[in-house]
Amino acid sequence: MEETIPAARAAKLPLIALGLALVLALITTFTFYFNWRETEEQLQAAKLDNTVYEKDSFRVSNLIQKNKGDREVIASKDYRAVVLRGTPKSAGSLALAYYNASSRELFIDVSRLPEAPVGQQYQVWASNGTQTTDAGTLHQEKMNEGLLKMNPVSDAKTFMVTLENAGGATAPTTSQTYLTGGL
Question: Average pLDDT in the 84-106 region?
Answer without folding.
Answer: 94
